[in-house]
Amino acid sequence: MKIYIPQKYQRLKRILIWIVSFILLLQVAYFVYDQYETKRIMKELTQEKEVVRPEPVMLFNLPIDSFTVVPGQVRSGQNLSDILMKQGIPMTEIDAISKKSVLTFDVRKMKINNPFYFFMSKTQPSKVEYFIYEINPVDYVVYDLSDSLRIYREKKPIVTQIKTASGVITSSLWNTMKAQALNPVLAMDLSEIYAWSIDFFGIQKGDKFRVIYEENFVSGKSIGIGRIFAAQFVHAKEDFYAFRFTQNNEESYFDDKGKSLKKAFLKAPLTFNRISSKFSNSRFHPVLKIYRPHHGIDYAAPTGTPVVSIGEGTVITKAYQAGGGGNYLKIKHNSVYTTSYMHLSKFGAGIAAGSRVKQGQVIGYVGTTGLSSGPHLDFRVFMNGSPVNPLTIKSPPTEPVFEKNMKDYTVHRDSMMTKLAAIKNF
Question: Of the four listed, 138, 157, 209, 277, which is most buried by Cβ atoms within 10 Å?
């Protein structure tokens, strides 16, 4: 029997059919999703989990976990043969190693206290796989003994950091650097940059500096100072700037006006020490016990301290004066200036009358020869044959920044001055 549904319920019927269909569709979708998730979870459970392996620890580009590493240091009297024999390497093999090493590293140049390492096999504990010798903090030589003999040199990676420093002088530049745990070589490098501008024997309490420079590191340990990019030194309340700038493919230092910091003469013929006697027309002589002129500067320094020529020139006298200057040299720099260096313990290599010397070249060593009460250098300067005070000489600068380069230099200088001004404790 056909059931009659009134017209007003026809719309309700369609709504109910739609709802039922939607519910059935949701159930189908959930069933499909549930099947997918079940399969995915089962797959993860059955798959072997990926193992994250740590990076191997490397030493000299070798994975140390694969070896037993035996470190050592070269002792006094030891050579390569002695070191290798102690690890059971036969003499015939040592001889082959020494001969093959000639083109890579001269084994006769192994130095006392330099480190070396044996990389021993883990499966054969007495077998040396590699022998490594550190030539210096950066360079090392590898002797690969694992199969056929192979010898090669490598370098440790160097990390260069840009650093800044500043300080106020209380006693000396060296002591100020030391008090701040700065690399003392930085003091030496600054003294070389300013050698033509500042007399570091005359540094005063209250002088100050700030500097931007590189420092090189290997395995977190400092191995030395790199380039100095900019510096400011206040000496006797006067600013002395130094900016590293490339001109004619050569790096040099210029001041804030673009003038070269290099001048005709160095300010002093030897590195850090004290002045024991200044230029005077009447000085009490410590040996003769009389007053007489002393037309030079006495630099007290240990015997053997290197003495350098303050400028290019020609040696005109190399002699010994028993009652006076002892071993001494005279160098003619040009038609105006001549310098002399007295009481030397010995002369520099190749120094002879008539030889040409360069600025900064070692010409002799501090001593106490002649009429002297202790080791020192008596240094004198003559202008047109007459003695002049070495501490008051004004030397003309070398070439300044060229006009064509001034625009670039000005930009560089201003940038560096801004960075210098940002350094604290100044």
Answer: 209
Which residue type does 80 have? L
Mean pLDDT of the chain: 86
- The count of structural domains within the chain is 3
pLDDT cut 70: percent of the chain above it: 83
What would the two tokens of residue 139 be?
């360079």
How crowded is the C-beta side of 38, counted as CA atoms within 13 Å?
A: 6
Q: How far apart are CA 72 and CA 340, in angstroms?
A: 49
Q: Which two tokens stand for residue 55?
A: 């990076």
- Tell me the CATH number at 374: 2.70.70.10
In a domain, residue 82? The reply is yes
- DSSP per residue over 152-193, as a string? EEEEPPPEEEEEEEEEE-SS-HHHHHHHTT--THHHHHHHHH
User: Are 239 and 317 members of one domain?
Assistant: no
The pTM is what?
A: 0.67
Q: Which domain holds residue 91?
A: 58-155
Q: Is there a contact between 377 and 365 (Cβ–Cβ < 8 Å)? A: no
Same domain, 380 and 290: yes
Give the Cα separation of 231 and 211 in Å (integer): 4
DSSP single-letter state for residue 98: H
Residue 371 lies in a domain: yes
Query: Residues 143-154: pLDDT tens digits?
Result: 999 888 999 999
Number of helices (H) and strands (E) in the chain: give both, helices first.
6, 24
